[in-house]
Write a structure and sequence with these properties.
The protein is mostly helical and 162 residues long. It has a domain of 101 residues. It has five helices and no strands. Helix 2 packs antiparallel against helix 3 and helix 3 runs antiparallel to helix 4. The radius of gyration is 28 Å and the shape is elongated.
Length: 162
């Protein structure tokens, strides 16, 4: 429901602002402002995105919670989309999301509404998964008995496909 309201209200706000600003400044300056904010926004999104990526890599390297750098990266990406969308209202929101203090406020508001149960790594500093090879905790001890060919079951077991 909120998404529907946003898709109705945001264009109405943008049209009203275009009419007001266009009436005050004229068509040429209004278009230059819209194009200029898109260009400036692209530059700022690239530089802020590099910083966010560095913070994310640092949190992975230290095995710390990557939630905040991930959310910052998502907000920077969203601000880029807002800045490339023509309009004064979306540009204002896009530039606001590029300010780290504003992103922190938004992150805290999101964090207050989301309940994260836990975050952790089970590898304890060692690689995990099939490529990591066996470790002491992965060894399974067992016994087997070879059956003669005449005692072998006939047909398929259903576990394998031929």
């Amino acid at each position: 429901m909120w998404l529907l309201i946003a898709f109705i209200i945001v264009p109405v706000i943008e049209i009203a602002l275009f009419i007001k600003v266009g009436g005050l400044l004229g068509l040429g300056p209004t278009l230059l402002i819209v194009i200029g904010t898109a260009i400036a926004g692209t530059y700022l999104v690239r530089s802020q995105g590099r910083l966010a990526l560095g913070q994310l890599q640092q949190s992975f390297g230290q095995l710390s919670d990557p939630t905040e750098p991930l959310v910052n990266g998502a907000m920077i990406l969203f601000s880029g989309a807002l800045l490339l969308t023509p309009g004064f209202f979306t540009d204002t929101l896009g530039f606001a999301l590029l300010v780290p203090a504003f992103r922190k406020i938004v992150f805290n508001a999101i964090q207050a509404r989301v309940n994260v149960q836990s975050f952790g790594s089970q590898s304890h500093g060692r690689p995990s998964g099939p490529a990591a090879g066996p470790t002491q905790g992965d060894i399974i001890d067992g016994e087997f008995v070879e059956l003669p060919d005449d005692d072998a079951p006939k047909g398929t077991s259903g576990w394998t496909k031929h």
